[in-house]
Amino acid sequence: MQHALSAKKLNVYYGEKHAVHDVSLDFAEKQVTALIGPSGCGKSTFLRSLNRMNDLIPSCRVTGDIMMKEHNINDRETDVVALRKKIGMVFQRPNPFHKSIYENIAFGPRYHGMKKKADLDNLVEQSLRKAALWDETKDRLHKSAFALSGGQQQRLCIARSVALRPDIILMDEPSSALDPISTSRIEELITELKEEFCIVIVTHNMHQAARISDKTAFFLSGRVVEYDETDKLFLDPSQKETSDYISGRFG
Amino acid sequence: MSARTVDKIATGIIMAVAGFIVLILLGLLGYILIRGVGHISWHFLTSAPESIRAGGGIGPQLFNSVFLLVLTLIITVPLGIGAGIYMSEYAKPNRMTSFIRLVVEVLSSFPSIIVGLFGLLILVNKFGFGFSLFSGALALTIFNLPLMVRITEQGLRGVPLQQKEASFALGISKWKTIRSVLLPIATPVILSGTILAAGRIFGEAAALLFTAGMSSPRLDFTDWNPFDARSPLNPFRPAETLAVHIWKINSEGLAPDATQIAAGASAVLIIMVLVFNLGARALGRYMHNKFTAAK
């Protein structure tokens, strides 16, 4: 199977704190990979290294390789602007721009060179349809995105990522701030999006990981304890820590 | 004494102090307005001052104040916003940055009469700008620039980090993120801060005595060529502002109605500054609602 992205011996430090230890993981195309583990285990930190989002934190240092085809993302020379166009990201809290629904989606593609209004109109519709948001928003595309509910805002953020046609979408606990109904809509959406994209999702909800992912990695204290097919990891884990965690003995 | 009584007494004292401050303000405003408002008329606001006879106005002074404000803002707004963007988005937290911040703070707390004398020596004499609006605007820049830097920096820092992350995650460059995501959100803060700072400039006198000068040439309000000596728009002419005029007329006014003119001019000045303050609040609130609330 073709890997969309592979991390090799990745280490992340915040100042003196060693947050991620020697993590090597491969992410397959058109699959959902879930990263689970207790709070502070380094799963979000690891995820944010994959699109160099940790560059924003001055004290943060990342060593190791992140390969996307033949290209090493973690190389100094990498153009992070071009990189982040290929690897989209959805955050824990919905963070639409203070702009209209239409502008939230058109902003990225327009910056990356799509200037024609007809093309943009088309793309906005397509992206909103993919995020199952078109019917709810088609009559108010030019109204503020802040008029949407939390769940709708999060789907708008997913649509915004999808509009750039990335190869990979990273999701950092995308439904943890949402109610159960919105959560299940986001989960349905993820299952549909995996037809096209490689999705890596951090979640603290084990049921969510079990429902939507193909593979799961269990993080503990900055290390990957176990990485396997989701069914295997949940039904027949090979490590004692994994079975303790999924059976709710800690975390 | 029981804890409840102590609590009541403390509350009472704090309320009294707050009430006292409000009283001082109301008393001051009331005194100035009651003394001056009666003298304000269309004629007073538009006609030229008289040096010996009664019946002079403050037309040119009012115009000078507004024009000087505009000139100062033309200089300080681009510089201040640029430096503010640098301080909030580009400067790394190191010694150099804290040194710059210290310099900015010191600059804004300079005594204004010192700035005025500095302006006289350097701008008026050394650089040969003479007593002019331009010298005055540069002197005012010394107070106003630090304020603009701080306002912009605070405005940008107030933008939630999530907005920046959202933009970066779409592969948007830093500059484009600042321009299209951060600045629009910070604009209400920057704009209302600018207007507040403008109110301060409007009332400034000491720094202008020796830079913009204490006289106004006979202006021809039909001549809008900024290069003519008599044109009101010429930035290189001397210009007495309203605040300077109040000071001058109080200390050496010869007209028989000098006291009334000073009172009227003071009322006009206070009203203008109040308008700036209230306007800044209203505009800030309006823009905040417009940008954040559901439409």
Automatic annotation (TrEMBL), chain A:
Respond yes or no to whether keyword Signal is given for this record. no
Domain of life per record: Bacteria
User: What would be one Gene Ontology cellular-component term for the protein?
Assistant: plasma membrane
Q: What is its main location?
A: membrane
- Enumerate the UniProt keywords alphabetically: ATP-binding, Cell membrane, Membrane, Nucleotide-binding, Phosphate transport, Translocase, Transport
Supply the InterPro entries for this chain: AAA+_ATPase, ABC_transporter-like_ATP-bd, ABC_transporter-like_CS, P-loop_NTPase, PstB-like
Tell me which residues make up the ABC transporter domain. Answer: 5-246
Q: Name one Pfam family in it.
A: ABC_tran
Its BP terms in the Gene Ontology are: phosphate ion transmembrane transport
Give the GO molecular function terms: ATP binding; ATP hydrolysis activity; phosphate transmembrane transporter activity
CDD domains for the chain: ABC_PstB_phosphate_transporter
Q: Do the record's keywords include Translocase?
A: yes
Q: How does it sit in the membrane?
A: Peripheral membrane protein
Where can this protein be found? Cell inner membrane
NCBIfam families per the record?
Answer: 3a0107s01c2
What the protein does comes down to:
Part of the ABC transporter complex PstSACB involved in phosphate import. Responsible for energy coupling to the transport system.
What is the name attached to this protein's record? Phosphate ABC transporter ATP-binding protein (PhoT family)
Q: Which organism is it from?
A: Paenibacillus cellulosilyticus
Starting at the broadest rank, the lineage of the source organism is: Bacteria, Bacillati, Bacillota, Bacilli, Bacillales
UniProtKB/TrEMBL annotation, chain B:
* Gene3D superfamilies, alphabetized: MetI-like
Q: Where in the cell is it found?
A: Cell membrane
Keyword Membrane in the entry? The reply is: yes
Q: What is one GO biological process annotated to this record?
A: phosphate ion transmembrane transport
- Keyword annotations from UniProtKB, A to Z: Cell membrane, Membrane, Transmembrane, Transmembrane helix, Transport
Task: Give one Pfam hit by family name.
Answer: BPD_transp_1
Sequence similarity: Belongs to the binding-protein-dependent transport system permease family. CysTW subfamily.
**What PANTHER family does this protein map onto?**
ABC TRANSPORTER PERMEASE PROTEIN YQGI-RELATED, PHOSPHATE TRANSPORT SYSTEM PERMEASE PROTEIN PSTA-RELATED
Q: Could you identify this protein by its name?
A: Phosphate transport system permease protein PstA
Species source reads Paenibacillus cellulosilyticus
